[in-house]
Design a protein that fits this description.
The structure holds three protein chains of three kinds. Chain B is mostly helical. Helices cover 77% and strands 0% of the residues of chain B. The relative contact order of chain C is 0.14. In chain C, α8 links the parallel β8 and β9. Classes of the chains: A mainly alpha, B mainly alpha, C alpha/beta.
């Protein structure tokens, strides 16, 4: 016979088997969308490409082949045999694009990690404390939102100086409001539910309630947002690279590749086409995956 | 109704202060000596340094500088460009119409094509039309806009020679600036071929700038319609024997438009960001190109002023969207929330 | 003359998990002033069959029937355009949730007037006059002001009255009411049902009342159809049905009414659950739960048998010797 205390631990933390079951259920819904699985497969492919770039790239991305400047894509020729052609300095486009996957993935990953960590903290704090703290945080977020993302990133990079790292920081700041708002609103929705009251009644402290009780239940929309931000970050990093404010030459970031070959765009179109195609395919894959994630995590669509 | 407008307006005030603080702080956060940065001179003698500092008002305490700044802003003084020595507001207003013209046409393209496509996809849900439209729109907003622009230039201007590579109008024409909108000014000037040239130059930039908003608007219209189509009142409308055009185009759409208008309003920010890239690619003489140029040439007052002006414009658009939202959805009007 | 003739109506839905039969072989005959009640639990297919008649099902639904005739017109082969001339005018339907069945963006006057304009081609003045008449007819006070009201300004009962006004605007020959009072307050429920019955008498139209409330059925209906798991299991006149139900399901349903168990300690229930999409029993769908089931019941599927007192779908309908239950 119970002695009146609620066992808070078992009420909150999912046991390992529950987690595995949740993952299995998640995969069931996710794999229903073939396009989402294709997207995931492509992303895995890109990650592998980034990890094995040294091995699979046919040439060193920095080596300049002076005799083969601005060569169109060729196959099986004796000399200057480059599948994607060469750029203005005679470097192999394919190798540069392959190495570029590293920069894009790092950029996307960094942005997502920064936004999730800082955004969640701000969102939870705003949602928990409400009042002045909430208003202040939200007004700051509104201010950031009132300036278009790219412009904001430009101004920030102007302050911090050009470069990939600064570009990532700048982009993270522009995405932050989305994460804060999302966390806050789903936090507020969850905090009026009964399992939170149960937790509070059984004596759970502030931090425990904020981060262990409520937060896990807000994760679904955040995961979707994180995925979409990953793809948008790749686009924005490339945009900043294109404008000369992101990764600086000779770094083979895809946007920077387009920028440094822009003068040859009419005479050697492959030099700008292929890097852009790489951006498109990477972003497309992640967006496809994100769509599948959203459908899989959306409670309204669940069927038993 | 009035309280509704007033409430919305009141929300702008803290954001205005936030943006101005941000812009004001921007210069103070620059690495190095702000005096040197703003004066545009290097290796100044101590006397010259003090002189410039006083002239720029940088010797006063920060809060006072901020108040002076706000005071100037409210009087329309956004500072002077270090490069051209002209008031920033003047430069902005001179170039702004070009961006508006491009933005408005791009938005029109996005809405006129995007909304009907979205409705069509929703009505034909699950069919190949739906999947095709959604697939294309997904590609549309996964594309880097600057690459898309370059690609179109390569094809249409380079390979096929159908469109001009850059600029707003052929350099053969010298049209008098009346409104700042070339499409109107060329008509007013009556010069033969001027209007056609302006239109011709506008095709590619409009397509490039409008692609992403089009894709997003199509998607969001579709999902808003899908939600609405499953509502009871749509079933009632069909049970009344109304024609599909009326059921979808009036009963469903009116409710879906609420979401769609919000989305369209949100696209204005996207358009502005896209304009920066589009104008750079097509050498379109608008705000986007100007801001990039200012950042690169370290014309910090211009960047600061541009930031505040653009933010204010976007805030105003959001306000208008909110008001429109209230007009379409009677519930908002009556409850005010 | 028969107003509505339905023979072997079936509706199949294409779902992710295969084909699902929501309605399986419904037979129905209505004359001009009939008042028919269709009863059943949630998921019995009672609403879907009427929605199929109206043509309001989504494209994933496949409607088949041997006969589906209304006022001499074949509704199976009719074109969509022709169908739209009939529904809303000669056949109308009102639904369960009145609050969400009205479009929040348009006024009451606009929504009622739409029907008038669409089917009767009335001009603005005539429409306004008729709308006020209709609102008065359904018992809405101060009808002139109500014309300008938006749905969110109305209560549940008012909304349903507006829906009824909209449905009878063109003097339909048949009105289908799908659980019209279920979502309303108890005090309002009786008012709405009474309103429907009064209107039916005044206008001389046929009324189909879909409900799961046996009390309402007892008080208002003349004919009753009982549905279970998409199949029509019994049809009789109301008095006969309540006195001598033939199908074991109807029998069990009536026994479960609180009014009939006043002398018992515990309320009788029906063991088991209604079969869903995946667990259809072989043979008679009710056999796993039937207290009278015999061996042949779960091997063969009983067909609907028509007799002079009604119809039932059972191999061993309950017999009554002489008098009493």
């Amino acid at each position: 016979m119970s002695n009146g205390t609620i066992d808070a631990v078992t009420a909150e933390t999912p046991r390992p088997s529950m987690l595995r079951q949740n993952l299995k259920e998640f995969w069931f819904y996710f794999s229903e969308s073939k396009t989402a699985v294709i997207g995931l497969a492509f992303l895995v492919g890109i990650i592998l490409m980034a990890l094995t770039a040294d091995i699979i790239a046919p040439h060193d991305p920095a080596v300049q082949y002076r005799e083969c400047l601005e060569q169109p894509p060729t196959w099986g020729a004796d000399k200057c045999n480059f599948i994607f052609g060469t750029d203005y300095a005679g470097r192999d486009m394919l190798s540069r694009i392959i190495f570029g996957t590293r920069l894009s993935l790092v950029a996307g990953g960094m942005v997502v990690i920064l936004c999730l960590s800082i955004g969640i903290v701000f969102g939870v704090v705003a949602g928990y404390f409400r009042g002045w703290v909430d208003i202040a945080i939200m007004r700051i977020m509104d201010t950031i939102l009132s300036v278009p993302g790219l412009l904001m990133a430009l101004v920030l990079v102007a302050i911090l100086g050009p470069g990939l790292l600064n570009a990532m920081i700048a982009i993270s700041i522009t995405y932050l409001p989305h994460f804060v708002r999302l966390t806050r609103s789903s936090y507020i929705t969850e905090s009026s539910k009964e399992y939170v009251i149960a937790s509070r009644v059984s004596g759970a402290g502030k931090f425990r309630i904020m981060f262990i009780t409520i937060l896990p239940n807000c994760m679904a929309p955040l995961i979707v947002q994180a995925t979409l931000s990953f793809s948008t970050a790749i686009l924005d990093t490339a945009a900043l690279g294109f404008l000369g404010m992101g990764a600086q030459p000779p770094a083979p970031e895809w946007g920077t590749l387009i920028a440094e070959n822009r003068d040859l765009m009419l005479s050697a179109p492959w030099t700008v086409t292929f890097p852009g195609l790489a951006i498109l395919l990477a972003v497309l894959a992640i967006n496809l995956m994100g769509d599948g994630l959203r459908d899989a995590l959306d409670p309204k669509m669940k069927r038993s | 109704m009035f309280t509704f407008i007033l409430k919305r307006f009141a929300l702008l005030v803290p954001i205005f202060f936030g943006v101005t603080i941000m812009a004001f702080g921007f210069i103070r956060l620059l690495p190095g000596d702000p005096v040197a940065a703003l004066a545009g001179e290097r290796d100044m003698t101590p006397e010259r340094h003090a002189e410039m500092m006083a002239k720029l008002g940088l010797d006063k305490p920060a809060w006072q500088q901020y108040l002076d700044y706000i005071w100037n802003l409210l009087h329309g003084d956004f500072g002077t460009s270090v490069l051209t020595n002209r008031p920033i507001l003047d430069e902005f207003l001179e170039l702004f119409p070009a961006t508006i013209e491009l933005g408005v046409t791009a938005m029109m393209l996005a809405v006129i094509i995007g909304v009907p496509i979205g409705i069509f996809a929703a009505v034909k849900r699950g069919t190949i039309y739906d999947q095709g439209i959604m697939g294309i729109s997904l590609v549309g907003y996964s594309m880097p806009i600057f690459w898309w622009g370059l690609l179109l230039i390569i094809l249409f201007s380079g390979v096929w020679g159908l469109t001009p590579i850059s600029g707003r109008i052929s350099f053969l024409f010298d049209v008098e600036t009346v409104t700042g909108f070339l499409l109107i000014d060329t008509l007013l000037s009556g010069e033969e071929g001027a209007f056609a040239s302006a239109m011709h130059h506008m095709i590619l930039p409009t397509i490039v700038l409008g692609t992403i908003p089009l894709a997003i608007i199509a998607r969001q219209t579709r999902s808003a319609m899908l939600e609405v189509l499953s509502e009871d009142y749509v079933r009632t409308a069909r049970a009344k024997g109304l024609s599909p055009l009326r059921v979808y185009g009036l009963h469903a759409l009116r409710n879906a438009m609420i979401t769609v208008i919000t989305v369209i309003g949100l696209q204005v920010g996207t358009l502005m960001a896209g304009a920066i890239l589009t104008e750079t690619i097509f050498s379109w003489p608008g705000i986007g190109k100007w801001i990039i140029f200012s950042v690169f040439s370290r014309d910090y007052y211009a960047v600061q002023g541009g930031l505040v002006l653009i933010a204010m414009i976007i805030m105003s658009v959001n306000l208008i969207v909110d008001l429109l939202y209230g007009m379409i959805n009677p519930r908002i009007l009556h409850t005010g929330s | 003359m028969s107003l509505l003739e339905i023979r072997n109506l079936s509706v199949e839905f294409q779902t992710v998990m295969g084909s699902f039969r929501a309605v399986d072989g419904v037979d129905l005959s209505l004359k001009e002033t009939d008042l028919l009640s269709i009863v059943g639990e949630s998921g019995s297919g009672k609403s879907v069959s009427m929605l199929a008649l109206m043509g309001l099902l989504p494209w994933t639904a496949n409607v088949t029937a041997d006969k589906l005739k209304f006022a001499g017109r074949d509704l199976l082969t009719i074109s969509n355009r022709e169908r739209r001339k009939i529904i809303g005018k000669d056949i109308s339907m009102i639904f369960q949730e009145p609050m969400s069945s009205l479009n929040p963006c348009f006024t009451v006057g606009f929504q009622i007037g739409e029907t008038l304009q669409q089917h009767l081609g009335m001009d603005r003045k005539a429409r306004k006059k008729r709308c006020i008449e209709l609102l008065d007819l359904v018992g809405i006070p101060a009808p002139e002001e109500r014309l300008k009201a938006f749905p969110h300004q109305l209560s549940g009962g008012m909304s349903q009255r507006v829906m009824i006004a909209m449905a009878i605007a063109c003097n339909p020959k048949l009105l289908i009411a799908d659980e019209p009072s279920t979502a309303l307050d108890v005090t309002i429920q009786a008012q709405i049902i009474d309103l429907l019955v009064d209107l039916q008498n005044e206008k001389g139209m046929a009324l189909v009342l879909i409900t799961h409330d046996m009390g309402v059925v007892a008080e208002t209906a003349k004919q009753v159809i009982v549905m279970y798991a998409g199949q029509q299991v019994e049809q009789q006149e109301v008095d006969a049905l309540f006195a001598k139900p033939r199908h074991p399901y109807t029998h069990a349903l009536l026994n479960a009414l609180p009014e009939r168990s006043l002398h018992l300690d515990r309320l009788p229930t029906i063991e088991g659950v209604v079969p869903g999409a995946g667990d259809r029993p072989t043979g008679c769908l009710f056999s796993p739960r039937c207290e009278f089931s015999q061996d042949d019941c779960n091997q063969n599927v009983p067909s609907l048998q028509h007799t002079d007192i009604g119809a039932f779908r059972c191999f061993h309908p309950i017999e009554y010797t002489g008098h009493g239950e």
